[in-house]
Automatic annotation (TrEMBL):
<keyword id="KW-0472">Membrane</keyword>
<protein>
    <recommendedName>
        <fullName>Sidoreflexin</fullName>
    </recommendedName>
</protein>
<feature type="transmembrane region" description="Helical">
    <location>
        <begin position="257"/>
        <end position="276"/>
    </location>
</feature>
<feature type="transmembrane region" description="Helical">
    <location>
        <begin position="227"/>
        <end position="245"/>
    </location>
</feature>
<keyword id="KW-0496">Mitochondrion</keyword>
<dbReference type="GO" id="GO:0006865">
    <property type="term" value="P:amino acid transport"/>
</dbReference>
<keyword id="KW-0812">Transmembrane</keyword>
<dbReference type="GO" id="GO:0015075">
    <property type="term" value="F:monoatomic ion transmembrane transporter activity"/>
</dbReference>
<comment type="similarity">
    <text>Belongs to the sideroflexin family.</text>
</comment>
<keyword id="KW-0813">Transport</keyword>
<keyword id="KW-0029">Amino-acid transport</keyword>
<dbReference type="GO" id="GO:0031966">
    <property type="term" value="C:mitochondrial membrane"/>
</dbReference>
<dbReference type="Pfam" id="PF03820">
    <property type="entry name" value="SFXNs"/>
</dbReference>
<dbReference type="InterPro" id="IPR004686">
    <property type="entry name" value="Mtc"/>
</dbReference>
<keyword id="KW-1133">Transmembrane helix</keyword>
Length: 304
């Protein structure tokens, strides 16, 4: 195949299979890409844009194009094409999230520690949510501030309240307080940070990327699934790991290396579719009047 006709935006792996999706997300969350300098990322973006324009530089291989697309997807916003801040990138989520989660699980016994690490976690989450928002729905600095303060307050109130409540409860129950706080905060942080999408709707397209209109229902569905997925992803590490640590800390060798408990816990620790029939009546009627029954599904960026 001539590289001048290479479709760099085509899915490299079959997204209809679990292994295909797994390979795709391993590819774009590769934390090694977070270490690359901006100049390298900009080179990758230039190559991707050249390929899209049908002018691949001579001597470029297909593997180089795949790697350039990998760097592009890891560091540039899918809606705007702007380079995202390092902490908010998907490629930073594994090391960043792992470290914060480990410290939240380790330092849960005192109120000051709970307050500090919940604040760190919500600051991290707010930045990630803003960085990976649907950029077609702009959000003002005031709205960002309100979302951040509300989510942080929710997390702190949940964590501190449960921390005090569980003083007389079994030790394991107290270890689950960080998860409860994270779950509660996610239910507030994400919808608040992306409220403009709910109010104004997000762009929906056909399978070829042609814009069909804006949908509030698509925004609600996308944000709801993001909230659920965030809580689900946090659950294994924040529910199962405390059980493991509770048992391990009873051994004498663990009691001799308490200074390593934190590092040990640290170490242990995208596009969606929607049926046209589920859209708002006015948008659904508009699509049907223009395209008839040829379009059954619309597609939208639900954000990270």
């Amino acid at each position: 195949m001539a590289l001048s006709t290479f479709d760099i935006d085509a899915q490299r792996w079959d997204q209809s299979t679990f292994m295909g999706r797994l390979k795709h997300f391993f590819n774009i969350t590769d934390c090694r890409t977070a270490l690359l300098p901006d100049s390298k990322l900009d080179e990758a973006k230039a190559l991707v844009e050249s390929c899209r324009a049908g002018s691949v530089p001579p001597g470029t291989t297909e593997e180089q194009l795949h790697y350039a697309k990998k760097l592009y997807d890891s560091a540039f916003h899918p809606d705007t094409g702007d380079r995202m801040n390092l902490i908010g990138r998907m490629s930073f989520q594994v090391p960043g999230g792992m470290a914060i989660t480990g410290f939240m699980l380790q330092f849960y016994r005192t109120v000051p520690a709970v307050v500090f690490w919940q604040w760190v976690n919500q600051s991290f989450n707010a930045l990630v949510n803003y960085t990976n928002r649907n950029a077609a729905s702009p959000i003002t600095p005031k709205q960002i501030g309100v979302a951040y303060i509300t989510a942080t307050s929710t997390a702190l109130a949940t964590a501190v309240g449960l921390n005090l409540y569980t003083k007389k409860a079994p030790p394991l129950v107290a270890r689950w307080v960080p998860f409860a706080a994270v779950a509660a905060a996610n239910c507030v942080n994400i919808p608040m940070m992306r409220q403009q999408e709910i109010l104004n709707g997000i762009a929906v397209t056909d399978e070829n990327g042609n814009k069909l209109g804006h949908s509030n229902k698509a925004a609600v569905k996308g944000i709801t699934q993001v909230v659920i997925s965030r809580i689900t992803m946090a659950a294994p590490g924040m529910i199962i790991l405390p059980i493991i640590m509770e048992r391990m800390e009873k051994y004498k060798f663990m009691q001799r290396i308490t200074f390593l408990h934190g590092p040990i816990q640290v170490m242990m620790v995208g596009v969606f579719s929607m049926a046209v029939s589920k859209l708002e009546p006015e948008l659904r009627d508009s699509i049907i009047s223009q395209y008839g029954d040829s379009i059954k599904q619309v597609y939208f960026n639900k954000g990270l």
